[in-house]
């Protein structure tokens, strides 16, 4: 049970128990991309390094060769990156027969330095900054998604019309109803457990067909690794069972969207550096400055929580999806919610990211903003209460991709934390998502104007 050592993998390959190794990088969209190795070749040589086309960190959801990136282009010849397996991430892949899985870091092909806009490298660089300050970040993400009766192939062939969900009405905490999801979710929980991913639970969520997967908090990079593995396993198992699992944040205008809240706390050794028993809410001075930072810079980094056009369709008043950069004590209408107040589990939950979030990027930018808050000694404003959607005076989170693109491109804070190269790269990604969308003539326009215009 649990993670695999390289020696154990070699034994299992020699014994014929494992014949395939998935070697994966994490792309800008937070997907696992890579190769299926014959395990004999992996333990012989590919464990050291393998290669992938460098457009993998400059493409969109549809794998288009997007022009305008400095890092790679047709003119630059679309060369290779090195995929270097991080052997500490080696795990069995028990939902597949005879298979193991490993995550890879993405390195420059010539000088083997980390590629700066690689999401895993961006998180690693902020974790190192925190280490230098004497802290470890512990994070968790919640994964919401919808399960559908039909498979992706059937749904695509129906023109995305055949979209009955696996459950027929709101399944929030509904144990009898969510029994229908168990065909997918029991194998998911058991596979994650056997991989050493500390799965806590699944639960029915507050919409027809919606489910949530909770994984226990851990050090930031591990927590992000758990997220991408968890999402991958959910989608794979759903596919294998003839269903579809979708992580699009807003699949239907009348249905609640799917989020991916991020929980965060800083630790010194085995103690939470966020906890102060003397404070009325149990929040240390460090936690207050950190939280002031993540709130102050939320408009700057919103793009990294919401990269797609569809991500912004989820931000609606009265829907549990936040629109304001304020914090609250256990109030789900604010962008940031204090959880575990007055206890050692005190932490801040960021409620902005949708289910399409790339967890490495979301965690990296929030750590950078928290570090900035600590460095600036920022004061935390009092918590908001009541219905935050109705409060006019507080900072709004950019509500469109265009607005988030502007705050991203013009953020001195992000440029200082990640470098111009990285911020220019993601600004191009934001521009492209907008350009691709603007070029489409939608069903809505045709239905609205075809006759009446
Ligand atoms: P709720 O049900 O209110 O959303 P949970 O108790 O399910 O809250 O916790 C949500 C997530 O927060 C879980 O993934 C949990 O592991 C994580 N979590 C708990 N304590 C901490 C902490 N100190 N730092 C970061 N995450 C934490």
From TrEMBL:
Q: What is the role of the protein in this entry? A: Catalyzes the ATP-dependent biosynthesis of glutamine from glutamate and ammonia.
Write down a Pfam family by its short name: Gln-synt_C
Q: Which cofactor does it need?
A: Mg(2+)
Family designation: Belongs to the glutamine synthetase family.
- Please report the stretch or stretches of sequence annotated as the GS catalytic domain: 119-453
Under SUPFAM superfamilies, the record lists: Glutamine synthetase, N-terminal domain, Glutamine synthetase/guanido kinase
Q: Which GO terms describe its molecular function?
A: ATP binding; glutamine synthetase activity
Name all GS beta-grasp domain ranges: 16-111
Q: What class of enzyme is it?
A: ligase
- Extract the SMART domains matched here: Gln-synt_C
What are the GO BP annotations of this UniProt entry? glutamine biosynthetic process
Enzyme Commission number, as recorded: 6.3.1.2
Q: Keywords in UniProt for this one? A: ATP-binding, Ligase, Nitrogen fixation, Nucleotide-binding
Which branch of life, at top level? Bacteria
Which InterPro entries does the entry mention? Gln_synt_N (IPR008147), Gln_synt_N_sf (IPR036651), Gln_synth/guanido_kin_cat_dom (IPR014746), Gln_synth_cat_dom (IPR008146)
Q: Which organism is it from?
A: Pseudooceanicola marinus
- The molecule here is called Putative glutamine synthetase 2
């Amino acid at each position: 049970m649990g993670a695999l050592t390289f020696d154990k993998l070699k034994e299992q390959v020699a014994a014929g128990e494992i014949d395939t190794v998935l070697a994966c990088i994490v792309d800008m969209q937070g997907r696992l991309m890579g190769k299926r190795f014959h395990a004999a070749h992996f333990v012989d040589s590919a464990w050291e390094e393998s290669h992938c086309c460098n457009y993998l960190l400059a493409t969109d959801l549809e794998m288009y060769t997007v022009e305008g990136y400095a890092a790679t282009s047709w003119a630059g010849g679309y060369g290779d990156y090195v995929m270097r397996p991080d052997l500490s991430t080696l795990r069995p892949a028990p939902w597949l027969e005879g298979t193991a899985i490993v995550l890879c870091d993405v390195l420059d092909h010539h000088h083997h330095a980390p590629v700066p806009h690689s999401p895993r490298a961006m998180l690693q660089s902020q974790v190192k900054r925190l280490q230098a300050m004497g802290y470890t970040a512990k994070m968790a993400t919640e994964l919401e998604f919808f399960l559908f009766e039909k498979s992706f192939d059937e749904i695509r062939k129906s023109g995305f019309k055949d979209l009955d969900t696996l459950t027929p009405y709101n399944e929030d905490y509904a144990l009898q109803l969510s029994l229908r999801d168990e065909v997918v979710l029991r194998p998911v929980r058991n596979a994650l457990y056997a991989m050493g991913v500390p799965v806590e639970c699944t639960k029915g969520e507050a919409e027809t067909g919606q489910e949530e997967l909770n994984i226990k908090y851990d050090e930031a990079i591990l927590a992000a690794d758990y997220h991408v593995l968890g999402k991958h396993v959910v989608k794979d198992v759903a596919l294998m069972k003839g269903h579809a699992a979708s992580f699009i944040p807003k699949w239907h205008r009348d249905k609640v969207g799917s989020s991916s809240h991020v929980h965060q706390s800083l630790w010194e050794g085995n103690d939470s550096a966020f906890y102060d028993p003397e404070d009325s809410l149990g929040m240390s001075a460090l936690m207050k400055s950190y939280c002031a930072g993540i709130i102050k810079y939320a408009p700057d980094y919103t793009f990294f929580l919401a990269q797609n056009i569809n991500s912004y369709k989820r931000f609606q008043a009265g829907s549990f999806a936040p629109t304001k950069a304020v914090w609250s004590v256990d109030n789900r209408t604010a962008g940031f919610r204090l959880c575990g107040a007055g206890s050692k589990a005190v932490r801040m939950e960021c409620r902005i990211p949708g289910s399409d979030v790339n967890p490495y990027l979301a965690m990296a930018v929030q750590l950078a903003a928290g570090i900035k808050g600590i460095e600036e000694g920022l004061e935390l404003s009092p918590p908001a209460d009541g219905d935050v959607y109705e409060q006019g005076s507080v900072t709004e989170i950019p509500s469109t991709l265009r607005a988030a693109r502007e705050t991203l491109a013009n953020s001195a804070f992000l440029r200082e934390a990640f470098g111009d190269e990285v911020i220019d790269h993601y600004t191009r990604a934001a521009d492209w998502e907008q350009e691709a969308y603007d070029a489409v003539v939608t069903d809505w326009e045709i239905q609205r104007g075809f006759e009446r215009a």
